[in-house]
Amino acid sequence: MSAQAIQETHAFTQEARDAVYRAIFSRRDVRGQFLPTPVPDEVLSRVLTAAHHAPSVGFMQPWNFLVVQSDQVKRRVHDAFAVAHAEAGEMFKGEKRDVYRSLKLEGILESPVGICITCDRERSGPVVVGRTHMKTMDLYSSVCAVQNLWLAARAEGLGVGWVSIFNQAELQQALGIPNRITPIAYLCVGYVSHFYAKPELESAGWLPRLPMENLVYFNQWGNRDDQQPLIGHLRRDQAAAQKTA
Questions:
Q1: Which end of the chain is more exposed for a tag (fewer CB within 10 A), N or C?
Q2: Which residues of 47-82 are buried (b: 16+ CB within 10 A; e: fewer)?
Q3: What is the pLDDT of residues 53-66, one digit of tens each?
Q4: pLDDT tens per residue, range 141-177
Q5: Helix or strand holding residue 162 (H, E)
Q6: Under 8 Å CB-to-CB from 206, ≥6 apart: which residues?
């Protein structure tokens, strides 16, 4: 079969493709726009099911999904964040410290639902297909579940904010997570008033989006070739992605 025939056989329709890319390009890390509107169980179920269908090394499916709806538990999680947030503020210097302290970096109390995605590194025993040499592949698999959930949530009109500023032991204590289980992501989930056109850290001037053409090498690490036709496509598609967002 020709490449064109294969594409026509397996590719989504143009409308479906556009929807997938729109979810990717308009996804945002939401912190301060959460509404108190409850998330219906049928919507939450679809989002969690999407996360469960992420790829995983050796098909070990190492994740669990801890759904947090209790205000009391949210307060414990927020207390753990506050301690780490204060510590983190001291790690930056000068203007960066002031900018960091001005940023809103979580929506733990405002979001209707919190979801902690974890990794059980012992789920399939000591020897796992695909993890025999790179032992961290189970952790990366759980991150794929995070991304699946995030994109499905965006398609459902839900905002998601990944809160990573925790001392791990304190987050585990707040949520009753056993020591052998690794927390991967605490996600704030809910409907929002709006999505920003750009990531908040980009808009705040914390860091710019890196140009794609500076991140792609050919055949060996560090080998850039701006004459490759792919580079022209990457520049055009990056501009289109920013316009879509």
A1: N
A2: bbebbeebebbbebbbbbbbebeeeebbebbbebbe
A3: 999 999 999 999 99
A4: 999 999 999 999 999 999 999 999 999 999 999 999 9
A5: strand 158-163
A6: 99, 103
Q: How far, in whole angstroms, is CA 236 from its chain's centroid?
A: 25
**Helix residue spans in the chain (DSSP H):** 3-10, 14-26, 41-52, 71-89, 94-102, 137-155, 168-175, 200-203, 229-244
Residue type, 159: G
CA 192 to CA 52: how far, in whole Å?
24
Torsions phi, psi of 109, nearest 5?
-85, -30
Please report which helix (H) or strand (E) contains residue 188, including its range: strand 181-191
- The identity of residue 91, as a single letter, is M
Q: What pTM was estimated for this model as a whole?
A: 0.93
d(CA 82, CA 114): 16
- Tokens 């999904």 -> residue: 65
Output the six-digit token pair for 65.
């999904």
Between β-strands 181-191 and 63-68, what pairing exists: parallel, antiparallel or unpaired? unpaired
What does the alpha-carbon distance between residue 241 and residue 245 come to, in Å, rounded to a whole number? Answer: 6
